[in-house]
Amino acid sequence: MTSETGGIAVRAVEVRKAYGKRQILSGVSFEVRRGELFALLGPNGAGKTSTVEIIEGYRTADAGTVSVLGLDPAREGARLRPRMGLMLQEGGIDPRTTPREAIRLYARFYQNPEDPERLLAYVDLEQAANTRFRRLSGGERQRVAIARALVHEPRLLLADEPTAALDDATSERVLEILEEARRERGMTMLAVTYDPAMISHTQRMLRLHEGTIDELPAAAVTPAGGRR
User: Does residue 228 have a pLDDT over 50?
Assistant: First the structure.
């Protein structure tokens, strides 16, 4: 698995994962097409986090195969990481750091990063660029997370609850930025979410339940985020 083929960004086949005697994933198989926004749904403990961690190469599956952008995340992580962006629920940014300092720092990790100033403007952070992270609003913090995830122009973005705890207007602006970035850059996006607003933007959805999957059509999700 060394090249992107068949229009598939992520392919998982019969993936299994257990922690001790607890089976988290019981033969999960699915595909995420290149360029789409794919949502991963499910209650706490369903295996969403484990699935994403296996995709990003942080954890290794006990059985089955995973291909991400044509690469095996377990064996070819060094090649995959520059092509993948992570928007995590916990930012991991020093609260004393400003958005400008944070994005400039992350830009130094890559050979051909985007211009930090352009990226700050892209996510509407010009006015807050020199504000300490601890003083930013929830929406501003999420926009910092978007900028950090995009700084190296990834082909795949993994987003963990990108609109969690945001009000409707702020959530909508974050979604607009993400959708614009996905469209303009031809980027694939896999999001773990419960937000009905974000679900309405997705092309396809996968529901994880007790380690197994159920692919849902858009019509199967109500405005409240539950099944019809």
Answer: no
- What length does the chain have? 228
- Tell how strand 188-192 and strand 22-33 pair up: unpaired
The whole-angstrom separation of Cα 72 and Cα 2 is 8
Instruction: Indicate if the pLDDT at residue 196 is higher than 80.
Output: no
Secondary structure class of 183 (helix, strand, coil): helix
Per-residue burial over 40-64, b = 16 or more CB atoms within 10 Å of its CB, e = otherwise:
bbbeeebbbbbbbbbbbbebebeeb
Q: Which two tokens stand for residue 222?
A: 């109500």
Q: Residue 193: its pLDDT value, please?
A: 82
Task: Evaluate whether 228 touches 219 at the Cβ level (below 8 Å).
Answer: yes
The fold for domain 8-220 equals Rossmann fold (3.40.50)
Rounded to two decimals, the pTM is: 0.85
Model confidence pLDDT, tens digit, residues 11-42: 999 999 999 999 999 999 999 999 999 998 88
The answer to whether 10 touches 47, Cβ cutoff 8 Å, is no
